[in-house]
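Exam revision sheet. Question 4 asks you to relate a sequence to its structure. Input first:
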Amino acid sequence: ITALLGGPKAWQGRDLAEIHSGLGIDDYGFDCFTMNCEKALNAMGVDEDTIDEIVVTMEPLRDEVLNRRRGLRAETKMVDGQSILERIGGEMNLEAVVETMFSGCVVDPRVKYFFTKDPSKLSGIQIKFTQLLTGLLGGPKTYDYARLRPAHYNLNITDYQFDAVVENLQAVCGMMDLSDAVVADISEVISTLRSYITCGCTVRYEIARKKTEASG
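Answer key, structure tokens:
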């Protein structure tokens, strides 16, 4: 955590995924740990903005602690020498998948707010999303992943809404008759984006709720 927050990188040993493998830690357990950190920082008199920033900075650890990242890189999903992107049918097919997925998202009551609040930007967002998936699924990496967190932080996207978008993507893949194995691989790789898209939104909501209740 010291290194994560900008301190010296003194840790040497097994990585987080290996250390936590087999412990059965789930999202609830990780959320509890995060909230206990927040309580400790609050008791030390750390200001709320700094606490919020620390909580968000810790969020990317979730995937490693829950063992979600291990083996989920596109290059580990090669089948018969083909990447996930190639098994989809290439970039043109992926563009069609994304376009159809966006058509579903704009009418899905769970997430349509994010896709309809500024229609003028929808085309650009669709292009960026296609670029992001292209790189994730084994194609050229033209999207800067460092932009994900700042772009989504203020949107307050919950895990529920992230899952809804993934469901729309899976439904489109089914419509295009992609094999179950390909759809599963796509879903696995995309799951590594969760913490960068939600930015700890669920935890931040819970912290805010408890603070509101405590203040009456």
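Marking note for examiners. The mean pLDDT is 84.
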